[in-house]
Amino acid sequence: MTLNQWNDDIVIMELLDEPEFSEDTDTLLAQIKSDGNAPEVIIDLQKVSNLNSSNLGALIEIKKLLQAKNRRMIICNISDAIWSTMLATGLDQVFEFIENTMVALASLTFEE
Fold first, then answer.
1. Whole-angstrom distance, CA of residue 44 vs CA of residue 100
2. Beta strand ranges found along 9-103 (DSSP E)
């Protein structure tokens, strides 16, 4: 995982396929749970070719934890195959998607 602390309030997480995906999302979940002031999170899936049910569950858990702390999670740089998975599972209505990291950063930066 590449975890870039953009600033005090924004983290960019570049995920890879399994087994790194699960390890990295577990690390992020632990960080969010232990941090009283969680950051906004951009999840970059550019290097992820497929998602399994555990991966989707981890993304849902991250979103719920951040939402409870009034923080956003944005998913970006997804492939057509992953977009198809999101559509098929209805998660296209659950997650916030933005086409790329720079636009996601702009969305978070100009919101503040």
1. 8
2. 10-16, 40-47, 73-76, 96-98
Crossing angle for the helix pair 53-68 and 20-34, to the nearest 10 degrees? 20
Stated pTM of the model: 0.90
Mean pLDDT of the chain: 90
Query: In this structure, are residues 42 and 105 in contact, taking their beta carbons and an 8 Å threshold?
Result: yes
Residue-range domain boundaries for the chain: 2-111
Q: Are 82 and 50 in contact (CB under 8 A)?
A: yes
CATH number of this structure's domain 2-111, picked from the four choices 3.90.70.10, 3.30.750.24, 3.30.540.10, 1.10.150.170: 3.30.750.24
Q: What angle do CA 69, 65, 59 make, to 5 degrees?
A: 140
